[in-house]
Write a structure and sequence with these properties.
It is a single chain. The protein is built from three helices and no strands. By secondary structure, the chain is an all-alpha fold. The protein folds into two domains: 10-57; 59-88. Helix 1 (12-25) crosses helix 2. This is Ribbon-helix-helix protein, copG family.
């Protein structure tokens, strides 16, 4: 993968917190920031898909939203219990 060096401006306290988090994970600060940027882009893409689906099919019903929330909670609980960690 090609990389490009860029300059960004962040608050000192944010840089310190990010640097600490990167150190805890044993990764370079740039990798931590790149991962956060990648997650943001995936979230944006997901929101766009949801908006497109709703434009074609209508808004989600309260029942559909409740089912989705329950499924996400179950997936989070499984992951956090360690049983799903290898799948992540």
């Amino acid at each position: 993968m090609a990389t490009k060096k860029v300059t960004i401006t962040l608050d000192d306290s944010l840089v310190e917190a990010l640097a600490g988090a990167a150190e805890e994970e044993g990764i370079p600060l740039s990798r931590l920031v790149a991962g956060a940027a990648e997650r943001e882009l995936r979230l944006r893409a997901g929101r766009a898909v949801i908006q497109q689906w709703q434009a074609e099919h209508g808004a989600f019903t309260p029942q559909e939203l409740a089912a989705a929330h329950a499924e996400m909670a179950d997936a989070d609980a499984e992951y956090l219990s360690g049983t799903g960690a290898s799948a992540a």
